[in-house]
Protein backbone atom coordinates (compact mmCIF):
# COMPACT_ATOMS: atom_id res chain seq x y z
CA UNK A 1 0.00 0.00 0.00
CA UNK A 2 1.21 3.52 -0.72
CA UNK A 3 2.42 5.47 2.28
CA UNK A 4 -0.12 8.30 1.92
CA UNK A 5 -2.98 5.83 1.60
CA UNK A 6 -1.74 3.95 4.67
CA UNK A 7 -1.68 7.18 6.68
CA UNK A 8 -5.24 7.91 5.57
CA UNK A 9 -6.33 4.40 6.55
CA UNK A 10 -4.83 4.95 9.98
CA UNK A 11 -6.81 8.16 10.42
CA UNK A 12 -3.85 10.54 10.38
CA UNK A 13 -5.35 12.80 7.71
CA UNK A 14 -7.19 12.68 4.42
CA UNK A 15 -5.20 11.15 1.58
CA UNK A 16 -4.39 14.54 0.07
CA UNK A 17 -3.37 15.99 3.44
CA UNK A 18 -1.27 12.88 4.12
CA UNK A 19 0.61 13.47 0.88
CA UNK A 20 1.44 16.98 2.05
CA UNK A 21 2.70 15.63 5.37
CA UNK A 22 5.05 13.32 3.49
CA UNK A 23 6.23 16.04 1.10
CA UNK A 24 6.99 18.25 4.11
CA UNK A 25 9.36 15.65 5.56
CA UNK A 26 7.21 15.06 8.64
CA UNK A 27 6.96 11.29 8.14
CA UNK A 28 9.58 8.73 9.19
CA UNK A 29 9.60 5.07 8.15
CA UNK A 30 11.86 2.88 10.26
CA UNK A 31 13.71 5.96 11.48
CA UNK A 32 14.29 7.55 8.08
CA UNK A 33 12.54 10.56 6.58
CA UNK A 34 10.42 9.65 3.57
CA UNK A 35 9.26 12.36 1.16
CA UNK A 36 7.63 10.16 -1.47
CA UNK A 37 3.92 9.57 -0.70
CA UNK A 38 3.90 6.70 -3.21
CA UNK A 39 6.48 4.73 -1.20
CA UNK A 40 5.14 1.20 -0.65
CA UNK A 41 4.67 0.09 2.96
CA UNK A 42 3.22 -3.05 4.48
CA UNK A 43 2.13 -1.54 7.78
CA UNK A 44 4.67 -3.61 9.69
CA UNK A 45 7.21 -0.78 9.58
CA UNK A 46 7.63 1.76 12.36
CA UNK A 47 5.88 4.75 10.85
CA UNK A 48 5.90 8.08 12.68
CA UNK A 49 4.34 11.46 11.96
CA UNK A 50 5.95 14.36 13.82
CA UNK A 51 7.58 11.81 16.10
CA UNK A 52 4.32 10.06 17.02
CA UNK A 53 3.95 6.45 15.96
CA UNK A 54 1.08 5.60 13.65
CA UNK A 55 -0.97 2.46 14.22
CA UNK A 56 -0.30 -0.57 12.08
CA UNK A 57 -3.76 -0.75 10.56
CA UNK A 58 -7.29 0.59 10.50
CA UNK A 59 -9.02 1.05 13.85
CA UNK A 60 -12.63 1.81 14.63
CA UNK A 61 -13.23 5.18 13.02
CA UNK A 62 -15.70 7.89 13.94
CA UNK A 63 -17.77 10.29 11.85
CA UNK A 64 -19.56 13.33 13.23
CA UNK A 65 -22.21 15.53 11.66
CA UNK A 66 -21.96 19.19 12.61
CA UNK A 67 -24.35 22.05 11.91
CA UNK A 68 -21.72 24.70 11.21
CA UNK A 69 -22.50 28.24 12.35
CA UNK A 70 -21.36 31.31 10.39
CA UNK A 71 -17.89 32.64 11.14
CA UNK A 72 -16.38 29.19 11.73
CA UNK A 73 -13.75 27.93 9.29
CA UNK A 74 -13.71 24.40 7.88
CA UNK A 75 -10.17 23.44 8.81
CA UNK A 76 -8.55 21.56 11.67
CA UNK A 77 -6.25 24.46 12.55
CA UNK A 78 -6.49 28.11 11.53
CA UNK A 79 -3.32 30.20 11.46
CA UNK A 80 -5.34 33.37 12.08
CA UNK A 81 -6.83 32.06 15.31
CA UNK A 82 -10.40 31.85 14.07
CA UNK A 83 -12.72 29.17 15.49
CA UNK A 84 -12.70 25.93 13.49
CA UNK A 85 -15.21 23.15 12.99
CA UNK A 86 -12.90 20.82 14.93
CA UNK A 87 -13.22 23.12 17.96
CA UNK A 88 -16.97 22.44 18.01
CA UNK A 89 -16.78 18.63 18.14
CA UNK A 90 -15.93 16.76 21.32
CA UNK A 91 -14.45 13.48 20.19
CA UNK A 92 -13.37 10.81 22.69
CA UNK A 93 -9.72 10.34 23.55
CA UNK A 94 -7.04 11.89 21.38
CA UNK A 95 -8.84 11.44 18.06
CA UNK A 96 -7.53 13.65 15.25
CA UNK A 97 -10.62 14.80 13.40
CA UNK A 98 -10.60 16.73 10.17
CA UNK A 99 -13.46 17.99 8.00
CA UNK A 100 -14.74 16.13 4.96
CA UNK A 101 -14.86 18.85 2.33
CA UNK A 102 -15.39 22.48 3.21
CA UNK A 103 -17.93 25.21 3.72
CA UNK A 104 -16.68 28.77 3.51
CA UNK A 105 -16.73 30.81 6.70
CA UNK A 106 -19.96 32.63 5.81
CA UNK A 107 -21.86 29.46 4.92
CA UNK A 108 -23.71 27.27 7.41
CA UNK A 109 -25.12 23.80 7.68
CA UNK A 110 -24.04 20.21 7.42
CA UNK A 111 -20.36 19.33 7.47
CA UNK A 112 -18.84 15.97 8.39
CA UNK A 113 -15.73 15.39 10.48
CA UNK A 114 -13.86 12.11 10.77
CA UNK A 115 -10.60 10.31 11.42
CA UNK A 116 -11.35 7.98 8.49
CA UNK A 117 -9.20 9.16 5.60
CA UNK A 118 -10.51 6.56 3.17
CA UNK A 119 -14.12 7.63 3.73
CA UNK A 120 -13.13 11.28 3.36
CA UNK A 121 -11.50 10.48 0.03
CA UNK A 122 -14.55 8.67 -1.30
CA UNK A 123 -16.95 11.39 -0.24
CA UNK A 124 -14.95 14.29 -1.70
CA UNK A 125 -13.16 13.03 -4.81
CA UNK A 126 -14.97 14.30 -7.94
CA UNK A 127 -14.89 10.88 -9.61
CA UNK A 128 -17.37 9.53 -7.04
CA UNK A 129 -19.85 12.35 -7.62
CA UNK A 130 -21.41 12.29 -4.15
CA UNK A 131 -24.29 14.83 -4.17
CA UNK A 132 -24.46 17.82 -1.83
CA UNK A 133 -27.62 19.92 -1.46
CA UNK A 134 -27.79 23.59 -0.47
CA UNK A 135 -30.43 26.21 0.25
CA UNK A 136 -29.45 29.59 -1.18
CA UNK A 137 -31.15 32.93 -0.61
CA UNK A 138 -30.11 35.18 -3.47
CA UNK A 139 -30.30 38.84 -4.39
CA UNK A 140 -31.84 40.45 -7.43
CA UNK A 141 -35.29 40.06 -8.87
CA UNK A 142 -37.26 36.82 -8.99
CA UNK A 143 -35.11 34.00 -10.36
CA UNK A 144 -36.32 33.38 -13.89
CA UNK A 145 -36.95 30.10 -15.65
CA UNK A 146 -34.10 31.00 -17.98
CA UNK A 147 -31.71 31.32 -15.05
CA UNK A 148 -32.81 27.92 -13.76
CA UNK A 149 -32.14 26.40 -17.17
CA UNK A 150 -28.62 27.86 -17.16
CA UNK A 151 -27.86 26.30 -13.78
CA UNK A 152 -29.27 22.97 -14.95
CA UNK A 153 -27.10 22.95 -18.06
CA UNK A 154 -23.86 24.01 -16.33
CA UNK A 155 -22.20 27.38 -15.81
CA UNK A 156 -18.90 28.45 -17.34
CA UNK A 157 -16.58 29.60 -14.53
CA UNK A 158 -12.98 30.76 -14.67
CA UNK A 159 -11.77 27.29 -13.62
CA UNK A 160 -13.99 25.40 -16.05
CA UNK A 161 -17.60 24.56 -16.73
CA UNK A 162 -19.64 23.12 -13.89
CA UNK A 163 -21.59 19.91 -14.21
CA UNK A 164 -25.36 20.35 -14.51
CA UNK A 165 -26.97 21.16 -11.16
CA UNK A 166 -30.32 19.97 -9.91
CA UNK A 167 -32.27 23.12 -9.05
CA UNK A 168 -35.66 23.89 -7.52
CA UNK A 169 -37.11 27.34 -6.98
CA UNK A 170 -38.57 27.42 -3.47
CA UNK A 171 -39.45 31.10 -3.50
CA UNK A 172 -38.86 34.20 -5.58
CA UNK A 173 -35.27 34.40 -4.36
CA UNK A 174 -34.74 31.04 -2.67
CA UNK A 175 -33.19 28.07 -4.45
CA UNK A 176 -32.43 24.47 -3.60
CA UNK A 177 -29.35 23.32 -5.52
CA UNK A 178 -27.72 19.91 -5.65
CA UNK A 179 -24.24 19.54 -7.13
CA UNK A 180 -21.98 16.53 -7.62
CA UNK A 181 -18.62 18.26 -7.55
CA UNK A 182 -16.82 20.69 -5.26
CA UNK A 183 -15.22 23.65 -6.97
CA UNK A 184 -14.19 26.44 -4.60
CA UNK A 185 -17.21 28.56 -3.60
CA UNK A 186 -19.05 26.89 -6.46
CA UNK A 187 -22.65 27.68 -5.52
CA UNK A 188 -21.83 31.33 -4.86
CA UNK A 189 -20.02 31.70 -8.17
CA UNK A 190 -22.75 29.93 -10.13
CA UNK A 191 -25.43 32.21 -8.72
CA UNK A 192 -23.28 35.28 -9.25
CA UNK A 193 -22.87 34.26 -12.90
CA UNK A 194 -26.65 34.35 -13.46
CA UNK A 195 -26.99 37.73 -11.76
CA UNK A 196 -28.24 36.52 -8.37
CA UNK A 197 -25.50 36.93 -5.72
CA UNK A 198 -25.93 34.65 -2.72
CA UNK A 199 -27.05 36.39 0.47
CA UNK A 200 -27.01 33.25 2.63
CA UNK A 201 -26.04 29.64 1.95
CA UNK A 202 -26.78 26.53 3.97
CA UNK A 203 -25.87 22.92 3.20
CA UNK A 204 -28.75 20.64 4.13
CA UNK A 205 -27.63 17.29 2.73
CA UNK A 206 -24.35 15.45 2.11
CA UNK A 207 -24.72 12.16 0.27
CA UNK A 208 -27.33 10.14 2.14
CA UNK A 209 -27.23 12.29 5.27
CA UNK A 210 -29.62 15.18 5.88
CA UNK A 211 -29.09 18.04 8.33
CA UNK A 212 -32.57 17.63 9.77
CA UNK A 213 -33.13 18.98 13.27
CA UNK A 214 -29.52 19.19 14.43
CA UNK A 215 -29.19 22.59 16.20
CA UNK A 216 -26.69 25.12 14.87
CA UNK A 217 -23.30 24.71 16.53
CA UNK A 218 -24.07 21.17 17.71
CA UNK A 219 -22.63 17.88 16.52
CA UNK A 220 -23.65 14.24 16.60
CA UNK A 221 -21.66 11.06 16.15
CA UNK A 222 -23.10 9.00 13.32
CA UNK A 223 -24.35 5.48 13.86
CA UNK A 224 -22.57 2.62 12.02
CA UNK A 225 -25.54 2.20 9.67
CA UNK A 226 -25.35 5.87 8.74
CA UNK A 227 -21.63 5.61 8.00
CA UNK A 228 -22.26 2.51 5.87
CA UNK A 229 -24.91 4.43 3.94
CA UNK A 230 -22.44 7.24 3.29
CA UNK A 231 -19.90 4.74 1.98
CA UNK A 232 -22.51 3.33 -0.38
CA UNK A 233 -23.33 6.86 -1.60
CA UNK A 234 -20.09 6.83 -3.58
CA UNK A 235 -21.34 3.69 -5.33
CA UNK A 236 -24.52 5.38 -6.52
CA UNK A 237 -26.98 3.96 -3.99
CA UNK A 238 -29.75 6.22 -2.67
CA UNK A 239 -31.66 6.79 0.56
CA UNK A 240 -31.35 9.49 3.19
CA UNK A 241 -30.65 9.53 6.90
CA UNK A 242 -31.44 12.48 9.14
CA UNK A 243 -28.42 14.06 10.87
CA UNK A 244 -30.80 15.55 13.40
CA UNK A 245 -32.43 12.26 14.33
CA UNK A 246 -32.37 11.56 18.07
CA UNK A 247 -29.37 9.58 19.26
CA UNK A 248 -29.18 9.63 23.06
CA UNK A 249 -25.78 10.57 24.44
CA UNK A 250 -24.31 11.44 21.07
CA UNK A 251 -25.18 15.11 20.61
CA UNK A 252 -22.32 17.42 21.57
Q: What is the CATH domain class of the largest domain? A: Alpha Beta
The termini sit apart by 36 Å
- Low-confidence segments, given as residue ranges, are 246-252
Give the full name of the CATH homologous superfamily of the largest domain. Answer: Pseudouridine synthase I, catalytic domain, N-terminal subdomain
Q: Strand portion, in percent?
A: 25-35%
How would you describe the shape? elongated
Q: Give the count of structural domains.
A: 3
Biggest β-sheet strands, sense, barrel: 10 strands, mixed
Mean pLDDT: 88
Task: Please describe what this structure looks like.
This protein folds into 3 domains: 51 residues, Structural Genomics Hypothetical 15.5 Kd Protein In mrcA-pckA Intergenic Region, Chain A (Roll); 96 residues, Alpha-Beta Plaits (2-Layer Sandwich); 76 residues, Alpha-Beta Plaits (2-Layer Sandwich). Helices cover 20% and strands 26% of the residues. It has 6 helices and 16 strands. The longest helix is centred in the last third of the chain and has 10 residues. The C terminus is likely disordered.
Short description:
This protein is of the alpha+beta class. Helix content is 20%, strand content 26%.
How are the elements arranged and paired?
Layout: H1 3-9, H2 15-23, E1 27-29, E2 32-33, E3 47-49, E4 52-53, E5 63-68, E6 98-100, E7 108-114, H3 117-124, E8 132-138, H4 145-153, E9 156-157, E10 160-161, E11 166-171, E12 174-179, H5 186-193, E13 198-206, E14 209-210, E15 219-221, H6 224-233, E16 241-242
Parallel strand pairs: 7-13, 14-16
Antiparallel strand pairs: 1-2, 1-3, 3-4, 5-7, 5-15, 6-7, 8-12, 8-13, 9-10, 11-12, 13-14
Helix pairs in contact: 1-2
Amino acid sequence: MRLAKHLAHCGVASRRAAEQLVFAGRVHVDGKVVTDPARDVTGDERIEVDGERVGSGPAVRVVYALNKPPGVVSTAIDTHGRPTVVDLVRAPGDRRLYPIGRLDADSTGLILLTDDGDLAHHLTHPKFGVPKTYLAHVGGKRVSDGSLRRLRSGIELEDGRTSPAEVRRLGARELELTIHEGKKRQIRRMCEAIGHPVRSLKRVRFGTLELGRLPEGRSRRLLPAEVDALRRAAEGETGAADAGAPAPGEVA
